[in-house]
Amino acid sequence: MLLSATCNPGLEEIAIQEIKERVGREAEMFHRGLLVFKGKEKDIFKLNYFSKTLHRIIIVIEKARIKTLNDIYSAVKKIDFSSFIKPEQTFAVRTKRHGTHPFTSIDISSVIGQGIIDSFQETTGKKLKVNLSEPDITFLSEVRGDSFLLGIDTTGESLHKRWYRKHTYITSLRSTIANSMVRISRLRNKETFLDPMCGVGMIPIEAYHFLSEKPNKFRNFAFEKLFWLNTSFFEKLKTSHREKHVESRIYGFDSNRKVVELSVENSRVAEAKVNFFVSDATVYPLDFDRICVDMPYGIRMKTHLRKLYDGFFRNLLRSDFKKAVILTASKCMKFVPKMDFEKIYTAEYGDIGIKILVLG
Predict the structure, then answer these.
(1) 2-153 maps to which CATH number?
(2) What is the pLDDT of residue 300?
């Protein structure tokens, strides 16, 4: 079957690596933030349960070239939806549209929904019901130029919404970006790890989960309502998995005592052994094997930012480390001293352009 996966735009390379590691599949970038690959049913369960850089895994059921809404309706109407949904189940259609078209995303969703209802009624004689708030099955569609994709969501709530994130802060980092940074740092067991501006602890917790291979627990998955999938494999997967013992010493500190207290609570819920404390990243020695940090980039901190960046990078360059991975907003690159970075990732975080700098 053809599968697709969504991820953070600009970090497709990291997500492709994880797919290869988890299920042995060679994924390709369909466009920024969307990967496609051929897979098997068991890959759906493995990626949903273990992936830390992906947001959503989708079963692609139709690809077509389209120009009009009628083209979309025709592409949908020919599918036998009785293979995917029961008469008593409800459904919804979510659409993303990119490019210039004489129709909206709402128009596309409406046409797809009608095509699903008409096809199912023609096949079974029964009419499906739409439920936009809590559907049993969610069909995801994307129109980009003249390209049309239709798939079935197997994930449900995005994988970046970790169960342990009980406490957040105005600058909290998305968990999938945090995990991608840990992967970029090439952290290995027994090495020391530090986040010197840890906030509520997202990066150190993801570092621990990366090493321990902790699954995505305490949640439901959309595939559990797909009657045509053999979920017995998933049940065996859950019972047979054993987390790895973490020998690395993982640390996080921040100058804000309040967020450090929140990070301690998050790590407790996350079952992650991280040493958190209060300190100053411009002064405290950064002599750790791997360093990952999400630098502040608030607009109201403009004067303070230059002083903070200058102090942090001076401290970093006099420290002994193997690799440092530094995230900042693109607009704050003017505060970053010129140096020989191993690699620079240009990515997106919501509507903010970000850079991930690799040093070492």
Answers:
(1) 3.30.2130.30
(2) 47
- Is the pLDDT confidence value at 12 over 90? yes
Burial of 28 (0-12, 13-18, 19+ CB in 10 A): exposed
Helices (H), 68-136: 69-77, 105-124
In 3D space, the residue among 153, 174, 158 whose CA is nearest the CA of residue 44 turns out to be 153
pLDDT class of 351 with cuts at 50, 70, 90: confident
pLDDT, mean of residues 138-145: 96
* Residue given tokens 């621990």 in the structure block: 208
Domain boundaries in the chain? 2-153, 175-214+243-359
Q: What whole-number distance in Å separates Cα of residue 207 and Cα of residue 204? A: 5
| pLDDT at residue 171 in the model | 59
Q: State residue 310 phi and psi, 5-degree precision.
A: -60, -45
Interacting residues of 86 by C-beta distance below 8 A, sequence separation 6+: 227
Q: How confident is the model at residue 221 (pLDDT cuts 50, 70, 90)?
A: very high
Nearest to 180 by CA among 351, 337, 10: 10
Q: In what helix (H) or strand (E) does residue 228 lie, and over which residues does it extend?
A: none
Q: Which residues lie below 8 Å from residue 317, measured CB to CB, with a gap of 6+? A: 339
Task: Measure the CA–CA gap between 292 and 181, rounded to whole angstroms.
Answer: 7
CATH code reported for the domain at 175-214+243-359: 3.40.50.150
Query: What pairing do the DSSP bridges indicate for beta strands 34-38 and 28-31?
Result: antiparallel
